[in-house]
Amino acid sequence: MDNTSFTHNLMLTIDQISQITGIRKSTLRYWEKSFDDFLKPARTHSNRREYSIEDLDRIKAIQRLLEQEHLTALGVRMRLQEIFSSHGKKDRGRKAKDKTLQKSPSASASGQDSSI
User: If you write DSSP's letter for every residue of the chain in order, what string do you get?
Assistant: First the structure.
């Protein structure tokens, strides 16, 4: 079995997330309401939360933004919006710049940056 697909499909309970991150379960529930555009754990047939690895990564990002960067809830929402809305744009921008540099070999050969 592919180890990557195993971890990708792994689902964690709120107790496990709390133990891994050190965040209280009540705080996780509050964050689910506060950051509902970014944190939406799946639910079982009995309505229990099931967190994916992606959810865990987002929880760690929220924790870092609140505790280390000292952002407010609004600041965290804004930063998460930036991260998730620009996530695909970074690659597209990098590919476009690479194509521009490939089209202009004389500029790169002379040591000049064609983007200036």
Answer: --HHHHHHH--B-HHHHHHHH---HHHHHHHHHHTTTT---EE-TT--EEB-HHHHHHHHHHHHHHHTS---HHHHHHHHHHHHHHHHHHHHHHHHHHHHHHH-HHHHHTT--TT-
Specify the amino acid at residue 91.
Answer: D
The whole-angstrom separation of Cα 67 and Cα 45 is: 34
Mean pLDDT across the stretch 29-51? Answer: 96
What pLDDT was estimated at residue 15? 98
Q: What is the CA radius of gyration of the chain?
A: 20
Convert the pLDDT of each residue in 2-19 to its tens digit: 555 556 689 999 999 999
Q: Report d(CA 20, CA 30) in Å as an integer.
A: 18
